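User: Structure with oxaloacetate ion, tokens only please.
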Amino acid sequence: MSTDTQTPAPSSAEPEIRKGLAGVVVDRTAISKVNPDTNSLLYRGYPVQELAARCSFEEVAYLLWHGELPTPEQLAELERAERSQRALDPNVKAVIDSLPTTAHPMDVVRTALSVIGANDPTTEDSSRGSNLAKSVRLLAQIPAVVAYDQRRRRGEDLVPPRDDLDYSANFLHMTFGEVPAPVVVDAFRVSMVLYAEHSFNASTFTARVITSTLSDLYSAVVGAVGALKGPLHGGANEAVMHVFDEIGDASKAESWLDQALAEKRKIMGFGHRVYKHGDSRVPTMKAALDTLVAEYGRKDLADLYDRLEAAMTDRKNIQPNLDYPSGPAYHLMGFDTLTFTPLFVASRITGWTAHIMEQLESNALIRPLSLYDGPDERHL
Ligand SMILES: CC(=O)SCCNC(=O)CCNC(=O)[C@H](O)C(C)(C)COP(=O)(O)OP(=O)(O)OC[C@H]1O[C@@H](n2cnc3c(N)ncnc32)[C@H](O)[C@@H]1OP(=O)(O)O
Ligand SMILES: O=C([O-])CC(=O)C(=O)O
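Assistant:
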């Protein structure tokens, strides 16, 4: 066996393979710190719980991109730029309209982002200024794409944006044609803040790999969307709701789980590559879910949530991740289950773009090695 480059492996020992890069530190980042020992998550040094309690999503986006929270003037400038770019681009709408309503919404978002990139004359400009401008544009455009796609599936017309609303209220307005109760808007804002950034997760790493070849920001984001779609990553928030639908009633949670575990199924919304004693974001999102349960009078959903979590702790001692409370929260807000992972995209675009810019500041082509275990050299 040999590694697949011209540099020979040390002859005495086979190189260690870390499947899934588990435990491998591949670079530095100043954007966020995930600490499984203290069960904490910091964005640029600030605990995510404090940001979720006190900041708008726009402020958090600014923090991730610039490293500091905005002054009132800087925030006003970001809000002006974001609000002025909220309307769905007609070119993008035309492409969405050409796609079947059976397409998965993540495929629609991925396609829409490709179209936005192909139409942008500055795509090849990878300067920080240009990439920041693109990041703000994507922050503003993704809600239009996600909201319109859900509406067209329901046979509803596009709702134009309102520039008198903040990001979260406008997103809900464009999706549902009205602004829901303040507790609902707030729960949505909290979810956006919590989903925004999580160090070298699979989709962010994908974006950094693509960026490391000196490809453009849109290409990196499109690749990241593809990585996020999978149910082992962002697709889990959608999958959690399918599990809830499958179980149906809290009284069946334990028997459903036993059967699923006997079939060696992975239980969606549980477990994490980094956190092994619970996800730092879950208590905050669970509190937001609780406000929605109270608002909509859905104790049945809360009961199912609690019983499945308790059974999973009892059977496997595996804790929920952020997708577990987010799935039912988005359901209560009125989103279609298929729209849940695109909501994750809408938030994570901030973290992805921050990482793309950080990667470019200190770039090295990302290209690991592999251990060849195919046939020995042979000849025709
Ligand atoms: C926002 C996010 O992206 S968070 C992640 C969202 N993804 C999910 O919720 C999907 C369900 N969870 C999983 O599949 C996993 O926990 C992952 C992929 C998130 C993390 O996986 P890894 O770090 O690779 O852990 P791994 O899969 O090796 O699990 C370790 C053990 O716990 C078990 N395990 C971990 N998660 C689960 C789960 N959700 N259901 C059942 N068993 C699980 C594994 O079967 C394995 O058991 P074994 O040692 O007996 O084989
Ligand atoms: O960090 C991870 O592997 C997955 C995750 O929780 C995230 O991306 O938010």
